[in-house]
Amino acid sequence: MKMKESTVNQIVSLAAMALIALPVGIACIILGYGLGDTPCILCWQERTAMVLVALIAIFITRYGLKPKYLGALILASVYGLWAGYRHSSNHILKDIGQGFGPAIFGVHTYVWVMVVFLVILLFAAVLLMLQGDKLSEKEDKNSWTLLNRSTVMVFLVVIGFNIVQAFSQTGPFPFIGQSDPYRMTFDSDKIVWSTANWPKLSSLSARGSYAIERPDFANMAEVEGSEVSNQPSLNALRTQKLPTEITGVATGISYSANSDIYAVVTSDNWVHFLNGKLDKVLASVMIDGAFSVEISNLTGVAFDGDNSVLVTADHKSYVRLEYDPLAKISDSYYLFMDGTDGVKELKRSRFSTVRAKYNYIGSLGWDAATQEYVTVTLPAKVRNNFVISRFSNQDFELNSEAKIINPAETFPMVTGLAIEQDKAYLLNHSAKQVLEMTMATNSIDAAYSFDGVSNPQGLALVNGEFAVLNGAQGQNSVSFFK
User: Fold this and answer.
1) Which Pfam families does this chain map to (predicted)?
2) Tens of pLDDT, residues 299-352
């Protein structure tokens, strides 16, 4: 049975309104004006393709279901689908959890682009099949319903917002925007119009979905059977409560003996530098991790110099910072969401691994002897691994990986890592132990238990003592053992 032209008209009108109001409207008004997300060059291509499809659908409601309009709709949709694949190919093969820009329901926007255009093409195919042997003719070319007019009004409003965003943030021709865009702002001193990035050919790629749960460092799952046979227990020396300015769950700690300062990170993207007594915050910044290399759920920090640290997220993205009393927060608008003077960013990127590719991490260490950054995987229900990875501090690429020789029944949840000479000390969260590992053999040779820490989240060596970080919302503390 052939569908009536009036029914087709209303369905196409609703589809056009949904397309312009939801993906285009949400991206522009909510993510853009609301959250400060500025589209990159490829994002603008994808958004333009959606606008063209919505416009073609409006032409169909006005002039009827004509072959030229269907051809144009399919052409624009194929272009949009290609743009989505092109965009995703830059990021979709990265390590688990990594991406570019904000994620919606755990999926980054460039992946949603592919879903949207696949739905459009399927919609067009079903619509054509329901036409039978002949396309419906427009019954009354002068008749336009309230729904049709509402669709046009929504289209014009969303287009208006996009025009303002495009001109103010990207600029007129020949400016084409940025491949790594800054946050949206109407401050003329912070707006950047750029011609530095013109499209270049790139290979396409795709990957399947990952189903590995991200760690929640405030409520970590207990891992039974991860306890290693103990040596004598550590003696508790003292506990220092961290300043109240550190409000999130502290997830990593490191100490610089030469400068007598600590660095502490929290799961809500704050990095704090503290004095040697841990009773005063010297400087703090909140990493802007949503609109460039995506950095969230900070988990590790390690001093690689007297005042410089590397900070890692659970998915192995990282940012390198330096404590510098002369640095101004106003000079780092594009990098930090909030904070104080005294911190500058040196580098931001992502570690890529092989054996640890499908595992998150809960710690970061610095091997001064080999000048390497060191990570240890967290256990997972699928693709379970217990791997140590070493990265060069020269090019930040993977130097080596190895499976850790584990004497326990199951892999431990390592949430802290400290390295001294040829030994690495791993913080076993569930068993409340410090595991001693020989770096040359990657074997765990001893274990030391401790008490009095409910959520051990970081480990540092301070003048021959173990400093164990206890992560608790607004009540973070450091306990010292020997």
Assistant:
1) DsbB
2) 999 999 999 999 999 999 999 999 999 999 999 888 999 999 999 999 999 999
Measure the CA–CA gap between 315 and 282, rounded to whole angstroms: 28
Based on the number of CB atoms within 10 Å of its own CB, is 240 exposed (0-12), middle (13-18) or buried (19 or more)? middle
CA angle 369, 374, 379 (to 5 degrees): 150
Q: How far apart (Å, rounded) are the C-alpha atoms in residues 257 and 303?
A: 10
Q: Is the pTM of this model over 0.85?
A: no
| Residue for token pair 């940012």 | 319
DSSP 192-231: ----S----------------PPP-TTSPPP-TT-PPPP-
- Tokens 């998150």 belong to 360
Q: Per residue in 181-239, pLDDT tens?
A: 888 999 888 888 888 776 555 443 344 445 678 888 888 878 888 888 877 899 999 99
Q: How many CB atoms lie within 10 A of CB 262?
A: 27
Alpha-carbon distance 173 to 415, whole Å?
Answer: 50
Of the candidates 354, 355, 350, 342, the one whose C-alpha atom is nearest the C-alpha of residue 373 is 350
What single-letter amino acid sits at 366? Answer: W
> If phi over 0 gives left and psi between -120 and 50 gives alpha, with beta otherwise, what is residue 106?
left
